[in-house]
Structures are given as structure tokens and as C-alpha cells.
Write a structure and sequence with these properties.
Length: 683
């Protein structure tokens, strides 16, 4: 949402608005001027006051806080929370809370009055009473009241629409399983998987069996639990059971270019490795070449510059039978709605991701919502029988749905959680597990007493310690490795040498990353990036001047389909072959692409980046920088995501001891109505 969406470019005073509405608007504006509310939040309240001259002050406050909530990634604002604890809503520092408190003092403390204030306005649609009104995201009232009667939710219309559309599409996809020849499925799954030890459940095989009979399959699991390994076997099994395998159209996508390229490469390697298992009956190598290039979701859907319109939608669907989406935790609500709308009804959608990672920056926590109850399984009797017949898998009793009618996740029969990490078992795995379990004391002890060299902590330090670490010499990789390679550029006429050099500089850069919890301040990504850049110049590891110089690492911050770059892409500015000026080079797996620096308007220097932006990437050595105060941002999910970006070495940098343990106690809960929409009675 932007002020343009509200049809407002500026926020003039409103003449003739009576008290106490004027006082409420003035109070909201003061909060915005102080930087606690966004200008956009206050603008929504002002917009509501214009649209509805009778709007109660409670509605104006609710509108501003709803916009603020949306900016923090929530899809809606729980009205009960608004009534019961309005002061705790935004998670602001004490001074801001006091200002909000002063504003709220004149308003009702009675929840029913808040509800009445919302319902009374013609700007708010009560979806429970008028469910059909306004099917379009931008048509009808700006706000919608929805959710169960006991826990109503206030939405901006767009997000209500996206949630409804996502739930409806997922229900339709989950409604009817695809008919499977269980004997044939069993034959191929037994060939593709080794027999599991007696008494254990092969979750990967179960995931394949479930995906074989579903238009929607969700495979969640922590790092290295074999999501890609499973997807490769699923593709082989789909090819094997398909009646016209030569026509099977598979597409691969991920939210970022890097994650998409990684998926493509891993699947290709895995399919090649499976050839010996399946013999001559299946041409997996040929199949792998027929799979299209992995693309970002934006590129797949045909995003166009400067517009929200996509080339593919319900009336112009994707030409695909199977779509595999990796890093699905990063897919936000609007993107999921667009993706589901563009997918033909017959196509299979396979979502791979880690439900415990940070959700997308934008509103929604779709994978988390879809995976509600994934740990408990909730598999019904039909799924238990099918798993046995098609995969020879015995679903443990503890993960079967109870016979009594209780609400169970609608997507239980479409979801499998992989539970064993095949790559991530050492000290970093143990640390991630402790954080995931909320055991801050154990996490701190692991960091402090690690003797393997995999875990390090610099606590009680100032920001300079992180800068020093980022350029350090030593066994653990730092930026020094790639900076030293910069000076070893081959002769201008040596094209093959130039390509090899570029690849080696990029590979060296990818070995280390400094990640920050926040963007701003001396502990934030922007300040850290500037400090590292300065220090690298002082140490003569970097030459050049100005904005663009050889070795500048950049993070793309806006999609530009024409230039072929997407939000989240990370590359390095390097001299092009033949002395043709600076270009930014991006590595997509083994292949390189480059864009002239003049084409890249929306980039940031990426010597440091936020944990959010690093999702979907892993580095040999990852350093996680925590700031002294980050409020609700410093959460268990953030720390877990940061740690799991490290493959071999993880370093924590924090201004004081105990910050990690403190962060681990705080869980990110995103308000959303999707879980409720995706529940049914088990019988
Ligand atoms: N059942 C298995 N037996 C042997 N090796 C396995 C098995 N499952 C996965 N692996 C191996 O473990 C490693 C991690 O698997 P994979 O990359 O598929 O995990 P992932 O869940 O996709 O990881 P990421 O978190 O990076 O997305 C790979 O080398 C893979 O070959």
C-alpha cells in the first residue's frame, strides 16, 4: 500500500472535522511526525476521516494501526488485541507507547464499542454479514471485518481479498486427490528410495507418495533435511507413472534468482545420480534437459516494470503440469495469490521450504500458515492406508488424526515435514536446534564452549569488531579472500581467463557474509556496509572512488525484468572483458550473467545485508550481528534463519552477552486469518 493507493499525495489539514476526531487525527499525525507511525499509516486514518465524516475516533486509530501492522508483515489486525491491549500493539519503545496511551485515553475501553465503531462505518465491510460484497481487491470498502466471531480481524481490502483467494484456491487443490495406481507408485518409490530401517518412517518417501496424488504438496523441513533430494525423486516418480511422460511440462521457481538457480542445479545433479537406479526405462538425463530454466517467481509470472500486472493470471495461465517452488517461506500473501491464480487447475504445485524461517518481508506468513500442525501430522485413516499401499510407509500412531471430530488443518493430507537433517548435524545444527526449541541457555553454552572451530562469539564488543571480522585473515573465510583476488585480473585480451577470474572472485565473495538483524544504526546493515567499505579502502584492499568501483558488492532492491535483475539478487561490480567498463556480475549456479552498472538504479552496497535478504542463500562462514535494541525484530525466527545461513562456521557478534538468549524467547507471530480458513472437522 502507498499514499498513491489512497489517492493522496499530500496530507493537508481537514477543515471542519469535529472533535474528538480532529484531536485523534492530530494525535496520529504527531505519532507519524515523531517517526513511530509511518506517514502512510496516518494517511490511511486521514483518508477514512475524509470518506466517512461520521467515522468514530476508534475507527481512525484502528485504521492507522492496521496500516502499521501491514507494514510489519501482518495480513490483518486482530480486533480483540486492539480492544484488550491497544498499547502493546505496535511493539514500540516506552516513549512511543506513552504518546499512544495519551491519544487513547479519550477513547472507549469497551471492546463492543470498538466493534460498533468499526461496523457503523460505511467504509468497513462486515464480511460475516455481507460476504459477497466486493470480490475485487481494489473495489468496495477500504476496510473489511472478517475472521471468526470470537476473534474478528480487521483487514485492508487487498489483503482480505488475497487471503480469501489463497484459501479458496488451496481448498480446491486439496479437495480431490488424483487417482494413483498404488502398485505402480510402490514399484517406483521402492526403486527410488533405499529401504528404511525397521521401525522408522521414511518421511521423504511419504512426501513423494503424497505429492503423487495431490495437486498441492507441501514439503517442509529444516536445512539439509532433503527437500530437494525428495523433489528429484518425486520428479522421477512422476515421469515414471505419467501416461504421456514425453509431454510432462515441469517448471522450477523460487523467490530469488539465486535460490532458483540452486534448485535447478541440485535437481539436475540429483536426477543424473538417479539414472543408475531406474535403468534404461526412464531417461532422466533427457528429462532434466526438458525442465525449463529455474526462474524467480516474478519472472515466471511475467512481472512487468512499473506495474502490478502480471503476464500470467487466471485468464492466461502458466503452461505447466508440475511447478516446484523452493524457499516457499519467502513467498508473501500477494505473490501466493498471484501464483495460485496463474496455475492451471490440473497442474501440481509442490512447495518446498522451512516453515520455521523468517516469513517474507511483505505481508503474510503463508508457508507457516499452510504448515500449521505439520509437526503433529494429523493424517487421516485414508492417508494412512494410502501411504502403506503406495510407499510401504507406516505413519506413526502419534501422527494420525484422532477419530473424534476436532478441527484439523485442511492441508494435513497434503503436507509432510521432513525431520532428519542429512547435512546439518554438527555444532551449527545443534545450535540451530537449540534456538528452534527456544533453549537460549543451551544455545549460549554451545556458542561459548565449542571446541570444533565451527562456532564463535564476539560478545560485549563494539561495531568495529564486526568490521574487523569481515576483513580478517584466518582460517574462517572473510571478504579478504575475494578482495585479494580483485587485483589478479588477467590481461584485457584473455577472454577465457577473464571468465575464470570473474567466477573465482564471485565464488570467493560467496564464502562469507555479514548479516545484520536490522537495517539502520551503527549495528545495522547500512552502517556496517559503509564501515566495511571504508576499512577495506584504508587497508588498500579496495581501490577506485565514487559510487561504482571494482569489487563493489551490490544487492538489488527492486525488480527490473528488462534488465533481468530481481529484488534480492546479489552481485559484484567487476571490469568487463576487454576493458569494456564496469558491469555487475551475478552467479546463477555455474553460469554467470552481467548487467552494465548504468542499468542498475536500485541497488545497495552489500558488504552487510539483513538476515531477511539473505534467505535462500548459504555461506561457508556467516556472521550474525545483533544490535543492542531491536524490539520485536530480534526474534527466534530471525536468529534461526541467520544461523542456518552458515554451512561451516558461524560467528555471533553482539554488544552484550545474553542478547541471543533473549532473542530466542521472542517468537514472531504474524496476524493472519489463513489458518482459520484452512481448518476442517476431522471425522
Ligand atoms: N535420504 C537421504 N540419504 C542420503 N543423503 C541424503 C538424503 N536426503 C538428503 N541427503 C543429502 O543431504 C544433503 C542435503 O539435502 P538437500 O539439499 O536435498 O536438503 P534441503 O532440505 O533441500 O536443504 P536446504 O535447506 O539447503 O534447502 C544433500 O547432499 C543430499 O544429497
Amino acid at each position: 500500500m502507498s499514499t498513491a493507493d489512497l489517492g493522496m499525495c499530500e496530507m493537508p489539514q481537514i477543515p471542519g472535522v469535529p472533535d474528538p476526531r480532529a484531536a485523534t487525527l492530530a494525535g496520529l499525525r504527531a505519532l507519524a511526525d515523531a517517526g513511530w507511525l509511518r506517514q502512510l499509516d496516518w494517511a490511511l486514518a486521514q483518508f477514512m476521516a475524509r470518506l466517512d465524516p461520521d467515522a468514530a475516533p476508534e475507527l481512525l486509530v484502528a485504521a492507522a494501526l492496521l496500516a502499521q501492522f501491514e507494514g510489519r508483515g501482518h495480513s490483518c489486525l486482530p480486533v480483540n488485541l486492539l480492544c484488550a491491549r491497544p498499547l502493546a500493539l505496535p511493539g514500540w519503545p516506552p516513549a512511543a507507547q506513552e504518546a499512544l496511551d495519551a491519544l487513547l485515553r479519550g477513547l472507549s475501553t469497551d471492546p463492543t464499542q470498538w466493534m460498533q465503531a468499526l461496523r457503523a462505518s460505511h467504509c468497513v465491510q462486515d464480511a460475516a454479514r455481507a460476504p459477497q460484497q466486493g470480490a475485487q481487491p481494489d473495489g468496495g470498502t477500504p476496510l473489511v471485518l472478517a475472521g471468526p466471531p470470537e476473534a474478528p480481524l480487521l483487514y485492508l481490502r487487498r489483503y482480505w481479498h488475497f487471503e480469501q483467494a489463497v484459501a479458496q484456491q488451496l481448498r480446491a487443490r486439496a479437495a480431490e486427490p488424483i487417482a494413483v495406481d498404488t502398485a505402480l507408485a510402490r514399484h517406483w518409490l521402492d526403486r527410488l528410495f533405499d529401504p528404511a530401517p525397521t521401525g522408522t518412517c521414511d518421511w521423504q518417501k511419504l512426501a513423494c507418495a503424497i505429492a503423487l496424488r495431490s495437486r498441492l504438496a507441501i514439503v517442509t523441513g529444516g536445512p539439509g533435511t532433503g527437500k530437494t533430494y525428495t523433489a528429484a525423486r518425486l520428479l522421477a516418480a512422476l515421469l515414471a507413472v505419467d501416461s504421456t511422460p514425453e509431454r510432462l511440462r515441469v517448471a522450477l521457481a523460487a523467490p530469488t534468482g539465486k535460490a532458483a538457480a540452486r534448485l535447478r542445479q541440485s535437481l539436475e545433479t540429483a536426477l543424473a545420480g538417479l539414472q543408475a537406479r531406474v535403468g534404461d526405462t526412464l531417461d532422466l538425463a533427457g528429462f532434466a534437459t526438458r525442465i525449463g530454466p529455474a526462474r524467480t517467481l516474478h519472472a515466471l509470472l511475467g512481472a512487468r516494470p512499473g506495474t502490478r500486472r502480471l503476464r500470467h493470471h487466471a485468464a492466461a495461465p502458466l503452461d505447466v503440469d508440475v511447478l516446484i517452488v523452493d524457499e516457499a517461506s519467502m513467498v508473501h500473501l500477494e505473490m501466493m495469490a498471484s501464483l495460485l491464480a496463474a496455475l492451471p487447475a490440473h497442474a501440481r504445485l509442490v512447495l518446498l521450504g522451512d516453515k520455521d524461517q523468517l516469513a517474507s518481508v511483505e505481508a503474510g506468513a503463508v508457508l507457516g500458515d499452510l504448515c500449521q500442525g505439520a509437526e503433529q501430522g494429523h493424517y487421516g485413516a485414508g492417508t494412512v492406508r494410502y501411504a502403506q499401499a503406495a510407499a510401504g510407509v507406516d505413519i506413526p500412531l502419534a501422527l494420525r488424526a484422532l477419530a473424534v471430530p476436532v478441527p484439523v488443518p485442511l492441508l494435513a493430507a497434503n503436507t509432510v515435514m521432513l525431520r532428519e537433517s542429512h547435512r546439518f548435524s554438527g555444532p551449527i545444527g545443534a545450535l540451530a536446534l537449540a534456538v528452534h526449541a527456544g533453549d537460549g541457555a543451551r544455545a549460549a553454552a554451545l556458542l561459548r564452549h565449542d571446541a570444533s572451530g565451527a562456532l564463535h562469539s564476539l560478545e560485549g564488543v563494539d561495531p568495529q569488531a564486526a568490521v574487523t571480522l569481515a576483513l580478517a585473515e584466518g582460517p574462517a573465510p572473510s571478504y579478504r579472500d575475494y578482495l585479494l583476488r580483485l587485483g589478479r585480473q588477467p590481461a584485457a585480451d584473455d577472454a577465457p581467463g577473464h571468465a575464470a577470474w570473474t567466477a573465482s572472485v564471485l565464488a570467493a565473495f560467496e564464502r562469507f557474509r555479514l548479516l545484520c538483524a536490522v537495517r539502520e544504526g551503527p549495528w545495522g546493515a547500512e552502517g556496517m556496509a559503509r564501515a566495511i567499505e571504508r576499512a577495506a579502502r584504508e587497508a588498500r584492499l579496495l581501490g577506485g572512488t565514487g559510487q561504482w568501483y571494482a569489487g563493489r558488492p551490490v544487492l538489488v532492491t527492486r525488480n527490473d525484468a528488462e534488465a533481468g535483475v530481481f529484488n534480492g539478487d546479489v552481485g559484484l561490480a567487476l571490469p568487463a572483458a576487454g576493458g569494456a567498463g564496469l558491469r555487475v556480475f551475478f552467479a546463477d549456479g555455474p553460469s554467470l550473467r552481467s548487467v552494465s552498472v548504468a542499468r542498475l538504479a536500485h541497488v545497495e552496497t552489500a558488504f552487510a545485508m539483513t538476515v531477511h535478504k539473505a534467505q535462500g542463500s548459504e555461506f561457508e562462514h556467516t556472521a550474525l550481528v545483533l544490535p543492542p535494541h531491536a524490539g520485536a525484530l530480534l526474534s527466534r525466527e530471525l536468529v534461526y534463519t541467520g544461523i542456518t545461513r552458515a554451512r561451516q562456521v558461524f560467528t555471533l557478534v553482539a554488544p552484550r552477552a545474553g542478547l541471543l538468549a533473549q532473542a530466542v524467547q521472542l517468537r514472531t507471530q504474524r496476524a493472519s486469518g489463513l489458518q482459520d480458513l484452512l481448518r476442517r472437522e476431522a471425522g
